[in-house]
TrEMBL record:
Catalytic activity annotation: 2 a phenolic donor + H2O2 = 2 a phenolic radical donor + 2 H2O
Source organism: Lolium multiflorum
Lineage: Eukaryota, Viridiplantae, Streptophyta, Embryophyta, Tracheophyta
Broadest EC class assigned to this enzyme: oxidoreductase
Disulfide bonds: 33-111, 66-71, 117-321, 195-230
Binding of Ca(2+) 2, residues: 189, 243, 251
Family per similarity comment: Belongs to the peroxidase family. Ascorbate peroxidase subfamily. Belongs to the peroxidase family. Classical plant (class III) peroxidase subfamily.
Cofactor: Ca(2+); heme b
Any Pfam family matching the protein: peroxidase
Residues the record marks as active site: 64 (proton acceptor)
Site (Transition state stabilizer): 60
PROSITE patterns, per database record: PEROXIDASE_1, PEROXIDASE_2, PEROXIDASE_4, PROKAR_LIPOPROTEIN
Protein name stated in the entry: Peroxidase
Length: 326
């Protein structure tokens, strides 16, 4: 009986999630705010022409929103007592919040009280990839904004130290499968990371805290290069390119690096420990299937963007992304 009740509950939850996803539509604002994508893109073109390195943080912000409480804009909320998602350790290096507010203000000017911050962020993420010479995909819209943002909820975020088991579990929690995992990990083809996100691989892999305590899965030459940039475990400021040489361009070089054991994070290297993800990496490391990967990335981004969304009468349309409406 208990097993049957559990199955019924599971089916009801799946039906509810499917219903919410179905309410997202590519032309959701075709009548209420037909200019929304043009407004967002105009701001993105202007910003990235001046600061192309902003693309990766904006894409990352959308990831971090969707993995915590779903894609509801909760990562954008401020907290007077510093207990919001953006105050948690995994999010303290996020940047671009002021820019998101600027885009939202432009959207509000064009269409007051109509477009959610969650939708604005989803469009920003898509344009960040496209303007970095990556794929373009249609973004289903109609999300509404949540009003809850709790720092401890960021435990749902896949950490850079995760192994393949942890990664698959955390992705599954937002209805993403093993293919989505390897495809979306390739977002690391753009952007930089602070040394503290991976320096344990250089100096403290097993907890001994000495220069010889290294991650044996890292390619030695790459290890030496990283050590020349990150001098110690205490380096909290130095930035390292995740995809050296083309960190501002969305391309297939990520797969080439990981295939050579030059993935920056534990989580990158972990993709070589699973048969499916390893095969996907080796296929795309050849560089011969760019269109295939670009199509896969768009599909996985749409799936991620559907994670636990608020729609219809749920949530609200925040006027400012950093505060709930009063």
């Amino acid at each position: 009986m208990a097993s049957r009740a559990w199955m019924v509950a599971l089916l009801l939850a799946a039906a509810s999630a499917s219903c919410a996803t179905a309410q997202l539509q590519e032309k959701f604002y075709s009548e209420t705010c037909p200019s929304v994508e043009d407004v967002v893109r105009k701001e993105m073109v202007r910003a990235l022409s001046l600061a192309p390195s902003l693309a990766a943080p904006l894409l990352r912000m959308h990831f971090h929103d969707c993995f915590v409480r779903g894609c509801d804009g909760s990562v954008l909320l401020d907290s007077a007592n510093k207990t919001a998602e953006k105050d948690a350790l995994p999010n303290i290096t996020l940047r671009g919040f002021d820019f998101v507010e600027r885009v939202k203000a432009a959207v509000e000017k064009a269409c007051p009280d109509t477009v959610s911050c969650a939708d604005v962020l989803a469009l920003i993420a898509r344009d960040a990839v496209w303007l970095s010479k990556g794929p373009f995909w249609e973004v289903p819209l109609g999300r509404r904004d949540g009003s809850v943002s709790i720092a401890n909820d960021t435990n749902a975020l896949p950490p850079p130290t995760a192994n393949i088991t942890e990664l698959t579990q955390l992705f599954a929690a937002v209805n993403l499968d093993i293919k989505d995992l390897v495809v979306l990990s390739a977002a690391h083809t753009i952007g930089t990371s602070h040394c503290f996100s991976f320096s344990d691989r250089l100096y403290n892999f097993t907890g001994r805290v000495n220069p010889s305590d290294i991650d044996p899965t890292l390619e030695p030459f790459y290890m030496a290069k990283l050590k020349s940039k990150c001098a110690s475990l205490n380096d909290n400021t130095t930035l390292v390119e995740m995809d050296p040489g083309s960190f501002k361009t969305f391309d297939l070089d990520y797969f080439k690096l990981v295939s050579k054991r030059r993935g920056l994070f534990h989580s990158d290297g972990a993709l070589l420990t699973n048969a499916f993800t390893r095969a996907y990496i080796l296929r795309h490391a050849t560089g011969a299937f760019k269109d295939e990967f670009f199509a896969d990335f768009g599909v996985s981004m749409v799936k991620m963007g559907n994670a636990n969304v608020l729609t219809g009468s749920q949530g609200e349309i925040r006027k400012k992304c950093s505060v709930v409406n009063h």
